[in-house]
Amino acid sequence: MDPAVFLVFCLCCLLLLSLWKQNSGKGNLPPGPTPLPVIGNILQLDVKNISKSLSNLSKVYGPVFTVYFGMNPTVVLYGYEAVKEALIDLGEDFSGRGKFPVAERINKGFGVLFSNGKRWKEMRRFSLMTLRNFGMGKRSIEDRVQEEARCLVEELRKTNASPCDPTFILGCAPCNVICSIIFQNRFDYTDQDFLNLLEKFNENFRIMSSPWIQVCNNFPAIIDYLPGSHNKILKNVADLRSYVLEKIKEHQATLDINNPRDFIDCFLIKMEQEKHNPQLEFTFENLIATVTDLFGAGTETTSTTLRYALLLLLKHPEVTAKVQEEIDRVVGRHRSPCMQDRSHMPYTDAVVHEAQRYIDLVPTNLPHLVTRDVKFRNYLIPKGTTVLALLTSLLNEDKEFPNPEVFDPGHFLDESGNFKKSDYFMPFSAGKRMCVGEGLARMELFLFLTTILQNFTLKSLVDPKDIDTTPVTSGFGHVPPSYQLCFIPV
User: Fold this and answer.
1) Which of 56, 85, 218, 335 is spaced 20 to 30 A from 42 at the CA atom?
2) Looking at the domain assignment, is residue 428 inside a domain?
């Protein structure tokens, strides 16, 4: 070997070793599998199912342990006690957003999902307030969801009981609800621009859940220098942001500060009010990123849950029959279901909760980050350390949910058939970083599912026993398999 090449090689090794010691020597991190230089614990993790790999490691290292994604240590929390202690009891300390390189390339620290510090607090506070108070005395969000549920039923009738893939129809409904809140308008279910947007959301969720993205998040340099499906995500988001920017410009041209129409108007008014603030967070960049965050999160997670829930109902026709009996008894056929009905429909409520528990949509949760040096149990977690609170460990806790691998609405019913709450039910996470749209999502799931089952019988194209509900990918999210069904009017 050429002496110069050998010298460069040695210097690179020394540099990497130095960086490794620098990263691994901070604080008093929990134990975990021994990492290799540079690549960390990637060889001990199954990139096709990260959550399962981490669950297996918890059996060896306990409820609090450390793994290295590349050169970065990540503290993993497994089980209710550890997750509650961090996200709720020490919520402020664990309220940062942890490393998620692919998302960081997209949002660049703006918006509500992947921002931190003062910016995150202001964007979250404003988004929550605007969603909760939306309408300024006009139509409530429940009215919007009920109206969209009726539109969904009309669209399903157009299938004429023929076999159909429900992916895009079920995507249209929650997307239209969030569009009415953000943009003040909804789309026709056959609008090609609308379907293109839905396809981008759907494709991004699939790619984000692929093994390749787990590799990209371990080695971020890949994102900038190598080809791969991550570039498709970046392209899709760029297209979505262009669409959002076009809508914002339309709003600017027609803005009436005394009569805000939707979320964008409210944000533009806030920008004007805060324009002399030297530490202004209400900027154009944050508006685009926040609207895109709400647009995407308010569409794909709810539509995927609806799609997965219908697959489970096809698999378990006896459950579907009980839900329809309860709908007939409480709601009847001549009015739309409403949120007041939920307290009188314990079985339906249990089915919706059990669907979310069983689906385990985002098993590893979005990464958290400690905002200061934190003493956690007997360890010292340094400021800036990424933390994964595994939601899958709560939703699949066999002491709370016996036989968690079985879809059973009884997990949320007491001996008298009344709905039974569970502290372990955290599909929207918990604490300071809890999903901003939880209330809206829960409303949509209940109203859309009950309205569908009020109007249709679900017919599978195969024997229910042969329906496979195993997710096709298990990365960032659990993506359901494709399927077809018939919506038979009742």
Assistant:
1) 85
2) yes
Q: Is residue 20 part of a domain?
A: no
Number of domains in the chain: 1
Q: How many CB atoms lie within 10 A of CB 331?
A: 19
Of 463, 127, 454, the residue nearest 315 (C-alpha): 463
DSSP letter at 387 equals E
Q: Which value, in Å, is the radius of gyration of the alpha carbons in the chain?
A: 24
Q: How many angstroms from the chain centroid is the CA of residue 49? A: 17
Tell me the pLDDT tens digit for each residue of 84-114: 999 999 999 999 999 888 988 888 999 999 9
Binding-site sequence positions: 435
Tens digit of pLDDT for each residue in 46-64? 988 999 999 999 999 999 9
The total of other beta-carbon atoms located within 10 Å of residue 48's CB is 13
Flag whether 267 is in a domain.
Answer: yes
Write the DSSP symbol of residue 376.
E
CA 127 to CA 114: how far, in whole Å? Answer: 14
Q: How far is CA 128 from CA 123, 164, 438, in A?
A: 9, 36, 10
Could you tell me if residue 12 is inside a domain? no
In terms of C-beta density within 10 A (0-12 exposed, 13-18 middle, 19 or more buried), how is residue 23 classed?
middle
Task: Over range 307-323, report the average pLDDT.
Answer: 98
Closest residue by Cα to residue 452 from 348, 356, 301, 300: 348
